[in-house]
Design a protein that fits this description.
This protein is mainly beta. The chain is 6% helix and 34% strand.
Length: 94
């Protein structure tokens, strides 16, 4: 599953009881076109989280482009389920 399929508007669309799943880990997206959405990072390795993510979105000035989101160096991460970290909008690419 790629990052685009793991975006949630604060909920899990496949679950009959929508909402972030209590046993999953998420990154909250801050700023940019995807501000306020959650990204499921449950299966990500720590180095993948460190690298950030480039996400395709229709809410973008370039069709097919990607919004770039990165963690802030040194910002703490919460272990376990729930919102574990934040990814901040750092720009976009066509």
């Amino acid at each position: 599953m790629n990052g685009d399929e793991q975006l949630l508007n604060g909920r899990d669309h496949d679950d009959p009881n929508p909402g972030p799943l209590p046993h999953r880990r998420y990154a909250a997206l801050v700023g940019g076109p995807l501000d306020g959405l959650l990204l499921d990072i449950e299966s990500w390795r720590p180095e993948e989280i460190d690298d950030g993510v480039a996400l395709t979105t229709a809410l973008f000035r370039w069709p097919g482009g990607r919004a770039l989101y990165d963690p802030r160096p040194g910002e703490p991460r919460t272990p376990g389920p729930g919102v574990s970290c934040r990814f901040y909008y750092s720009g976009d690419t066509p």
